[in-house]
Amino acid sequence: xxxxxxxxxxxxxVEMHTAPRPDRHTRRREQTRRKLLDAARALFARQxxxxxxxxxxxxxxxxxxxxxxxxxxxxxxxxxxxxxxTVAAQGDAVASVTADLDDPAEVVAAAHRYFVNLxxxxxxxxxxxxxxxxxxxxxxRALGPFAQRDLERGIRxxxxxxxNKRVALFAAGGALLGVMGDVLDGRxxxxxxxxxxxxxxxxxxxxxxxxxxxxxxxxxxxxxxxS
Amino acid sequence: xxxxxxxxxxxxxVEMHTAPRPDRHTRRREQTRRKLLDAARALFARQxxxxxxxxxxxxxxxxxxxxxxxxxxxxxxxxxxxxxxTVAAQGDAVASVTADLDDPAEVVAAAHRYFVNLxxxxxxxxxxxxxxxxxxxxxxRALGPFAQRDLERGIRxxxxxxxNKRVALFAAGGALLGVMGDVLDGRxxxxxxxxxxxxxxxxxxxxxxxxxxxxxxxxxxxxxxxS
DNA sequence: CTCATATATGATAATCCTATCAGCGGATTC
DNA sequence: GAATCCGCTGATAGGATTATCATATATGAG
Lengths: 227, 227
Fold this sequence. Notes:
The structure is a homodimer. By secondary structure, the first copy, chain A, is mainly alpha-helical. The first copy, chain A, has 2 domains: 22-72, Homeodomain-like (Arc Repressor Mutant, subunit A), CATH 1.10.10.60; 85-220, Tetracycline Repressor, domain 2 (Orthogonal Bundle), CATH 1.10.357. In chain A, 67% of the residues lie in helices and 0% in strands. Chain A is built from 10 helices and no strands. In chain A, 42% of the residues are buried. Chain A is elongated and about 60 Å long. The first copy, chain A, has helices spanning 24-47, 54-61, 68-71, 75-98, 104-121, 123-136, 138-156, 165-184, 192-203, 208-216. In chain A, helix 4 (75-98) runs parallel beside helix 7 (138-156), helix 5 runs antiparallel to helix 7 and helix 5 packs parallel to helix 8. At the A-B interface, helix 8 and helix 9 of A face helix 8 and helix 9 of B.
């Protein structure tokens, strides 16, 4: 096909619309980007956003310093990207954990227990959540919509009864972060997830007996971390 | 430096043990130190510790830049000092609020309500607590001992019943910070303090009726902010 | 009034961090 | 296998921040 070497002239206007990219260059590019995002995520989790330098990120990612700016305009930009990924992953996690549950109380318990357990099984994610929340209010912003939906569902079902929805949501979110923090410090008891869920359910108006029962139900199986 | 004229009987000075501080030098020194601490506190509250520069502190304090290092070895040192002051003031505040109360449930409610209201009436203190907590876990560390004592007292009195004390404490502390954050954002309802206290009491095992009743009791009068 | 001491001050040096840039090397095309 | 494209790379400039230091100012003593 094609003779005529596309030389000097402006010629090659061949690029049409999409230009799909099985290209290997593109693959390599995305690999570097991924390494940077993973490194940034790990460092943000370990030491917080404010205390992480760009050269630390490229070092951890094992790429050249200059590569950073091939993919992100600034530190702010990579923070934004990490936040976006994290929020998306949180959304998926919550959705998959609570997908098959009917009882609103059980949904709330499962969601809270999932995050408490996440702090134990994947401390990096846990720290990331805590640290991002400190600088970006991510926790409440990401969990908020889900939590609100579940709380309202429970109220409609007559299962929950709270004096004020907004206060209840922020209290529950804060409580979750607090317990996660203790888990991350390694000092929380082994079944902190159940105890915490029980507390939240009580706060939401369940009787002590009901709260204990729901919080004790077996957790639905969750597929696998996105990694 | 030159000249060692001052040598010899330096001790001749009258200062015996305490040297109360008739010295004017000392007074001036402490005044500068105080200005620096107040400025640092305000800035930490306004923009967080990590985003505060030393020249901002000296500027806000209206002292020369170099003066900073006459009083603190580093930024870390002044953060430490601010934290210490803050924790001490918190301790006093909690003690004075709960001094005259007998019912352990009412003590817990008053303490939580005090802090929620503090976020509204003195946002600077509120932000300081939140921001310092983000970088130093101050909130839980400072409130912990009081909260633990009150929780245990309530359990002994048969008023509280929790599955796990530690988890309950961290959940309550986290919930408080969450609600305070919402108040500081200006979006919490006016009576957030009562609603939050009610939620905490429920979490601690009070019935919905009892929790609502205790949370509604009038707050004991608190003397005056230390300023 | 003059000296001695202690504190305050801003200019400056030293350091750290971000963002840029010109060149390198692998990969693809012909 | 030569030409060319594209992302990778480290050195470095530019800017910001911290800590130091010599001097200025204020206080108290003689």
